[in-house]
Design a protein that fits this description.
Elements: E1 3-11, E2 20-27, E3 33-42, E4 48-49, E5 54-63, E6 82-89, H1 91-110, E7 114-116, H2 122-132
Antiparallel strand pairs: 1-2, 1-6, 2-3, 3-4, 3-5, 5-7
Helix pairs in contact: 1-2
């Protein structure tokens, strides 16, 4: 098996699992997660706000080699998360696309955009990350009910 980039969806329990939190993950040739990018709201101390209603929009890169759930969420490893393959290839091919994802994540963090749980949120970030890699989010993981905000295009500064 090659390295993979997966688009993930975690059904949110407080919304009866109907609405989802989307994310993007890179796995190695054994299927072990290496990195994950999650969007959401940041607390004032920079930690990830798991129950946000509003705040500053952020994109967090989780390095599975140095785990810290306060600052770097992990949704891929949750048993109810579902994933769809976006790209499979050798290390170099996947690393090149992932570099583009990291660049988009940095632009999101520098954007000053606000978080809104229905409009501009984790799903908007996951869509922007996938598109920034030149990949298309799976249609089953986007939509106004299943993944509010997934259809929204974030206004990002290319120079950030």
């Amino acid at each position: 098996m090659n390295h993979r980039i997966l688009f993930g969806s975690y059904p949110i329990p407080r919304f009866a699992g109907i609405a989802s939190h989307n994310f993007v993950v890179w796995t190695d040739e054994t299927g072990r997660p290496l990195y994950e990018i999650n969007g959401g709201a940041a607390n004032s101390d920079g930690s990830f706000n798991y129950c946000a209603i509003r705040g500053r929009l952020t994109a967090v890169i989780t390095d599975y080699a140095s785990r810290d759930l306060v600052y770097c969420p992990e949704f891929y490893v949750r048993p109810t998360s579902r994933t769809t393959l976006l790209l499979e290839g050798n290390y170099t091919a996947v690393a090149t696309r992932w570099r583009a994802a990291v660049d988009v994540a940095a632009r999101i963090r520098a954007s000053g955009l606000g978080y809104s749980f229905l409009i501009q949120n984790s799903n908007s970030v996951a869509t922007a990350i996938a598109q920034g890699m030149g990949l298309t989010p799976p249609s089953a993981a986007v939509g106004r009910v299943r993944a509010p905000g997934s259809y929204r295009h974030l206004a990002l500064d290319r120079a950030a």
